[in-house]
């Protein structure tokens, strides 16, 4: 593990993307997404992904210059053909466009297809909530999750993020509808540790605690039947509005060559600024709830991530040696 | 338990509401919500609630004539002062208004405060999805749910419903962010049965399997930290947009006299009609997934409820004697 100053990581990641052919603004935004994930302790959405992005650019599966083509379907609904652009670049352009529309209309939404992995969803809703608007973000993924009671992976991890303005800054949640991420299962496999019962099934649909077997099987939905229902509804809703692929037809976030055909959905609603303080008081009340036996304290979503971010801005980013060496090589050569 | 033809239940429930002072249209809609819940096997949102509604009308906490006051905040965002109207009446008027706006704008939303309990959320999103639009519905409630790791009830049960059009009719989910409903805990108490570990805490914040103690305590969020995060985000988002009360300040869905100050939020997005068949094929694939050991088959959300509805339209509604007798008395006297 190497501790690298954020400015150095940023310079190298941007350099790598520039050499691969990205415009400067696009390189900066894509690098920022990866770095923010590292800052907040979500390495599965961090620098690990840079090599794959650059391979995909080299293979023509990502066009690092486009921001996507915008097609308004009514004054408030934006449909975006991502034109195989970098996920954060296409997402940001769409989100900025609907944020502006929501100022006038009260609400606007964007459905995106044909864009690449957009990274940590909280990034997007946090920036919108910081501007005083409520935001909902959804994205779909390759089929990694089994339906409740079923043996095979048919659903994406289908996360949701929500941002709400408060007088103490944005309140943010960001969670997958899978019980854990495939990244966590790979991490256990890497460290040779078993996974807890109930996390996953093997390729035959039998429960397993072996992460190597789980890698070829299916992750459980979180919260049983309810998490399954949510994940399925998100998959259908996003696919419906974006025109994106469904289930096992989804490609392009875990490989180097396929055009990415998942969907993203953003909804922005003009906030009611009058209640920010009531929200902060309510969150304080929750924070101060006496903890249940076995728990140290009650946490507010996203606060641990923000504390870690503040710390890492000072200390630098702890990056696995193999990942950092790959970033350095990419920044020198613009390819793996 | 009495088996009563739906037409007879409908006539008696409408009669009760008319005698209590509701307009005919409003009485029909409120009765329909209660009856649809009974048809779909959700008696906690069914006729059980009629007596409380009529007491609240008698006490001036419900105005059974108003449809709420509409205030457009931009072309696409409707804010509704419910004027203490019947929940379904105010919700339906708002939903119809934004459904029409979404036809033109692509998306529209309504935030409602000061309306009463709106009943089963699936009712609303199903009707919108049947018209080819995607719908999201949220509503808040009295604080009955403890934060993950905390001892006291600070969150509503904060359900979400989503409806998506498919070529085989609406796909619908409707779920609370609590692990179970307070109605289920009352039902166990009534039958003298213990509740499973993990469902609830007692008034001191200790885990309990005694439903009598759980009634005065707090229900767990579903899915641990993730369900807690979702429920909290829904509470803040709805409250923010509607101007509704938060947490323990919420009143008026479980008592006979307080003005109801929870919030409701609806979002309607114009659908993309081109994919209906792909959705039906995908749902078939899920339905046909080989079941895990211990499961009979994989279920699609809402399908069991719809099958039960079809059956009960034929057989009549099985209604607890005490509930049916109360409905009969209310229909004769217009008060309890």
Question: Mind explaining what this structure looks like?
Answer:
The structure is a homodimer of 336-residue chains. Chain A folds into two domains: 1-65 and 318-336, Hypothetical Oxidoreductase Yiak, Chain: A, domain 1, CATH 1.10.1530.10; 69-178 and 221-287, Ribosomal Protein S8, Chain: A, domain 1, CATH 3.30.1370.60. The mean pLDDT of chain A is 95. In chain A, the strands form three sheets. Chain A has a seven-stranded mixed beta sheet with strand order 2-3-4-11-5-6-7, with helices on both faces. In chain A, strands 9-8-10 form a three-stranded antiparallel beta sheet. Chain A is an alpha+beta fold. In chain A, a hairpin with a 6-residue loop joins strand 6 (160-164) and strand 7 (171-175). In chain A, helix 1 crosses helix 2 (24-39). Chain A starts with a strand and ends with a helix. Chain A contains eleven helices and twelve strands. Chain A has helices spanning 6-20, 24-39, 50-58, 87-105, 122-130, 182-191, 211-214, 224-242, 276-287, 303-315, 321-333, and strands at residues 2-4, 69-72, 77-81, 107-113, 133-139, 160-164, 171-175, 200-201, 207-208, 218-219, 263-270, 317-319. The interface between A and B is large, with 81 and 80 residues.
